Amino acid sequence: MDPIVLTGLAFASSLVVSWIVYPKVIPIFKKLNVNQTVSEYALDEFKEKPITPTLGGVVFVIISVIIAVIFNGFTFTSTAYNLCLMAFIGYALLGFIDDYKIIKEGKNDGLKPIEKLILQFLIAGIFYYFYQKSAVSTIQIFPSDILIDLGIFYAVFVLLMFIATTNAVNITDGMDGLSGGTSFIALGAFLFFAIRQQEWSVAILISSLMGALVGYLKNNMKPAKIIMGDCGSHALGGLMAALAMVLKIELLLIVIGGVFVWETASVALQIAAVKTIKRRIFKYTPIHYSFILSGYREQAIVLMFYAVGLICAIAAIILGVI
Prior knowledge:
Elements: H1 3-31, H2 44-47, H3 56-71, H4 79-105, H5 113-131, E1 138-141, E2 146-149, H6 153-172, H7 178-196, H8 200-220, H9 229-246, H10 252-256, H11 258-276, H12 288-293, H13 298-321
Antiparallel strand pairs: 1-2
């Protein structure tokens, strides 16, 4: 069958399955009290939201992996595909451990920051061990043909990509539909590059995840019936970092994930400002909360971030093609 058709069918199948599964698992999660308490750092109006079941990410990870494996004919001959699966599942498991601890303890602490960081580095290190056997240490400066060989520093670069991306997607997951929708848009850009490079097994994995995200977003848009949790945000971030590497568009990840960069930068700048000049430069961080304090409605902010994400995705495609 034509690979484009297979990619499209993988998307459609994943969408249908997720559309059916989510309404069935949400009541189960509610009965099991699979809930996540709101962070103490959230705005007051978000603390007043009804308790919402978490582990929505577990569902779209499982669905997308199963559909991808089926439509790839249960074959694992593509190194790029295997590496992406490794990162996707590895970071999903890390996020699940964090979610489980949050659910069990009934508070939003989860793993200690140092524990989470160590595990993030460990998974990234395992990925790099297998990745470096087939990878080159050069990165391209788009839109030019300039290549820079990082040599031994490429390993450090890879580790930082994973840490930054997984945490950036996690930081963005603060409003109904925000992280899931912006991730869907970003994955669309990665799908373009996978198809352009004829990495069909990778394209099928991406399209399977995008289809599952549609089913998730149907139940995550305001008012959210379920949230993705750390399992979902870590899996999405880990996969996007892996995709940027196997498709050799490492620096374009910064453009594709412009929304995530913006969110993370706002937190970093706020912390730096408080520690140096003893004052805030934003009303609240992550930056999406600043818009709430400026009088914008949550749905309007989410749509604005979607628009910014779409612009970033299109810009990355243009930079990668010209």
